[in-house]
Amino acid sequence: MTASAAPLPPRRRLLPAWFRDVFSRPSGAIGLAIIAVHLAIALLAPLIVPYDFAAQDSKAMFADPSAAHWLGGDHLGRDVLTRTLMGGREAILVSTMATGLAVLWGGLFGIFLAFAGRFVDEASMRMVDALLAIPWILFVMLFVAGLGTGMGVLIPILGISYGLSIVRVVRAAALDVVTRDFILAARARGERRSVVIVHEMLPNVFDTLAVQAAMTWSWMLLGFSSLSFLGFGATPPTPDWGLMISDARSAMMVSPWPVLAPMVALSSLIIGINLLSDGLAKALGVDRMKKAAV
Amino acid sequence: MDARPDVIAAEELQIGFVTRAGEPAAIVDRVSLALRHGVSLGLAGESGCGKSTLLLALMGHAKAGLAVTHGTCCFEGRSLFEMPQAERDALRGKRIAMVPQNAGQALTPTLRIGAQIDEVLRFHTSLGPAERRERVLDLIDRVQLPSPAELARRYPHELSGGQQQRVAVAMAVAVDPVLLLLDEPTTGLDVTTQLHILELLRGLADQSGTAMVCVSHDIGVIARLCDEVAVMYAGRIVETGRADDVLVRPRHPYARGLLASIPRLKTGAVPEPIPGRPPTMGRMPQGCRFALRCDHVQDRCRVEMPPLRPLAGGAVACHFAEQLGIWQRPHDVAATALDGADHGAVLRVEDIAITYARPGLLDRFGLGGKSPARAVDGVSFTLEHGEVLGLVGESGSGKSTILRGIAGLWPLARGRIVLADGSDLAGPVDDRPRDVLRRVQLVFQNPDASLNPRRTVREILTRPLAIYHGLTGQAAAPRLASLMADVRLGEDYLDHLPSQLSGGEKQRIAIARAFAADPEIILCDEVTSALDVSVQASILNLLADLCASRGVACILVSHDLAVVRAVARRIAVLYRGRLCEIGPAAQVALAPRHPYTRALVGAVLEPEPGQAIESDAALIEDAGGGPGGCSFRSRCPRSIPLCAQTVPDLLALDPGHAVRCHRVREAVA
Fold it and tell me: Tell me: the pLDDT tens digits for B12-32?
């Protein structure tokens, strides 16, 4: 039954309905909680860490956890807890900004392609396919080698390369929407193309875009950490999870803590983001449309 | 008398689910029916009344999430829901067969027609391959498809919609079932094709004594096909009896309302909608379920549910059935002759042609080869100030394409479209000035697709106000309020999303959006075909009222001649992109001259049993006309050699009535 009797609740609330939906699911709520903890730590880390992240203490070299160093010390005698708490700051900043960039250009370009004529669409998509065929890490390393590391280089490069897959997904979703009559109605009304894209198309591919954004965020985080691990991301002595794992891995058998701590931190954040994207997908997918219909 | 048990007998059958609140809700509520061998029963009612759920239950199936919560359903005396699964599977397809609504989707696209029919035989009989092959060809022949051997090798997509439906019928009758279940068997087919399929089904059932249960939203189909009728409302049968009783002398107020809401070609009476909408599942009123919408409601109806009780050969579930008096079907209206006064044209369409294929890269350099198919060819007509012009034709006749051409959504290959003040509408939408765009507004067929599902009604209606009148935010509020009043919806609907509205309400919003522009012309593309009849009537009335009160001219495109007849002043009939007849509505509907119009008129199913089929309705099925000459000649029962040579001209008969046919010209000369 699609017919429903009045009165229906008004649509606008403090938080949009889909957001409350994400919160009310276990995966979404747990994911958001994990992310919130990580963000809080990243923001407050300089205030709460017990030591200076670069301070070397020869007595703490390869030290096991103790009251003074809760997670022990690394090969230079630096406090692992301090470095782990600080280690997400650059990764989170870079991955969030790069994700924003990827979603922005990938989303808009994807919708644009769905509108554009056959020729532009075909040409652009084949180009995207060709670029996607190159392993992204080579792609990024190429630019980093030429332009140097640093956020000013990493954010645009990561954003552009990860945006390619968003273009694909959003274009596919938009192609489905573009054939619907309300787009035709908008054209017949004489709407400008930009209005049609923002006003008519965007709300209808928002679901896809939101889920894709969350997934891209987690890939991006992993990607940035891999770059750091390879020495192309964060520059020493900045504390960074990827870098910490890379530095400490040779002594892993003797002293596992400098490797384990950043690993746990990194994977918990990625799990949190994945849980969020799962919750988003469920809240924005068919479930929501069904709910509105009953 | 037949000593065999009833083919199918449902006893107090209840099918439902448990709501989130933990309360039981019944989709089909204590329905009892019994069907003897060889009898056909039609199930009528608005969508959501439980027709399809009941139909599936008759073959022992409950949709996912539903279960039988009370009662039994017996096939030849054996309870369908209690027998083992294997036994039930063996019955289906063999003893009980079903013809699905959309055969195009029910057939497997990758299997040849012959193989699909053969599958039924392989599963349900022990025939050898050679015998089966013979049976397949025989079946294809029985459903009157041409050249069986050749057709058996084709794939479903190579067949027309009507042919696909015939294949579905062939599969259903392959092993001579005793019960045939039909789920909207002709919905989506052209009227002439529909008539053929119904004749076929009727003939097959009579031949082999098969009982049928037919679900249809179209009472005309039921009137044509069925001996008995059961009218369902909110999960219950409210009236049942012989078709010639129930459809001619309905007793239940709902059955009466349903019959009054159907547009009738012959009388042209304006259909009357049933106000309100059916109650929501799980929120059923305590007493009579129709009480909220009933004109004759009394206190007793609100507290006590009326049982289905026998009355004059049938059965009715109404406390006051005897007191309601004799039902008058919507009375005939006098044929309103055109007053002859010149109303002045608001739109002139001059000799337009529209081709399907957009010019490709090769065509631009003159390398494209053969010229693309003409969807519309040489169509001219004028739309007069404040009139409703009906544009009728079957699918592929180019009627919607003409609307798109006028709206600038499809380029014209030839011809001109001019507004009253001389503004040219030939250019595409992007080249038209805003004011010209404002004057021509479109309403689409399916409001589910034409309203953005992520925008509230307020946002949807504010767009045209903003574009054409510069009204946004608070400035638009008074206009929004008056628009909602115009389409008879409360202002609280403004903050709803389209998915929270019913089909009829959505279409009202779509109409409001068109009127928000203050147009001169409204183009309506099959605006009621996605709606229930009871809702259709209210939309048609609304559209007619709004156009009349604002002096807006309207082109109403429909495949249904009766719908157009109810509101149009003039009717134009299209066939394969050419206008074959245009004239005053009553003349075209009652005294059609073109053979195709006559066929269309003859194929309209009035909701009354026992009509004779007019000879012209028995069209030859479409064989595809060759180039040149009259495009209708390959189906025309009256064609002469001249028809293959030249395209007939549009010949003016009476003032305002013109026909494109050599035979008519002959007769007049």
Answer: 999 988 777 777 788 898 899
Cite the beta strand spans of A148-247 per DSSP E.
Answer: none
Give, in order, the Cα–Cα distances in Å from B618 to each of B195, B636, B641. Answer: 8, 10, 21
Q: pLDDT tens, B178-229?
A: 999 999 888 878 888 888 888 889 888 888 889 999 999 889 899 989 999 9
Amino acid identity of residue B151, one-letter, is L
Q: Model ipTM?
A: 0.77
- Name the residue among B400, B407, B445, B391 with its Cα closest to residue B574: B391
Instruction: Find, among B541, B471, B604, B501, the residue nearest to B194 by Cα.
Output: B604
Quick check: helix, strand or coil at residue A11?
coil
Size of interface A-B (CB pairs under 8 A): 84
The rounded radius of gyration (Å) of the Cα atoms in chain B is 26
The chain-wide mean pLDDT, for chain A, equals 84
- CA-to-CA separations, B580 to B257, B375, B484, B572, B574, in angstroms, rounded: 35, 15, 39, 8, 6
Output the six-digit token pair for B498: 């389209």
pLDDT at B613 (0 to 100): 62
Residue B159 identity (one-letter amino acid): L
Q: Do B429 and A12 touch (CB under 8 A)?
A: no
- Architecture per CATH, B345-582: 3-Layer(aba) Sandwich (3.40)
Contact between B231 and B45 under an 8 Å Cβ cutoff? The reply is: yes
Q: The domain at B8-95+177-324 falls in which architecture?
A: 3-Layer(aba) Sandwich (3.40)
Rg (CA), chain A: 23
Q: How far apart are CA B307 and CA B237, in angstroms?
A: 10
**Chain B partners within 8 Å of A11 (Cβ):** 456, 495-497
User: Which of B444, B495, B499 is opposite residue A185, by nearest beta carbon?
Assistant: B444
Phi, psi of B2 (to 5 degrees): -75, 120
Q: For residue B143, what pLDDT band results from cuts at 50, 70 and 90?
A: confident
Q: What is the DSSP letter of B235?
A: T
Superfamily of A18-46+72-293 according to CATH:
MetI-like (1.10.3720.10)
Q: At what angle do helices A241-248 and A202-230 cross, to 10 degrees?
A: 30
Residue with tokens 């997918």: A285
Whole-number Å distance between alpha carbons of B307 and B292? 17
What element of type H or E holds B137?
Answer: helix B129-142
Locate the chain B residue with the closest alpha carbon to A202: B454
E strand spans, B88-206: 96-99, 179-183
User: Over the stretch A192-216, which tens digit does the pLDDT of each residue have?
Assistant: 888 888 888 988 888 888 889 989 9
Boundaries of every domain in chain A: 18-46+72-293
A118 touches chain B (CB under 8 A): no
Closest CA to B260 of B534, B45, B51, B503: B534
Q: Where are the alpha helices (DSSP H) in B554-624?
A: 561-567, 585-590, 595-603
The CA distance from B349 to B376, in Å, is: 12
Identity of residue A50: P
- Which residues lie below 8 Å from residue B29, measured CB to CB, with a gap of 6+? B14, B16, B50, B234, B235, B236
Contact A1 B281 (CB under 8 A): yes
Is it the case that residue A191 has pLDDT exceeding 80?
Answer: yes
Treating both helix axes as pointing N-terminal to C-terminal, what angle do A26-48 and A88-115 enclose, rounded to 10 degrees?
Answer: 130
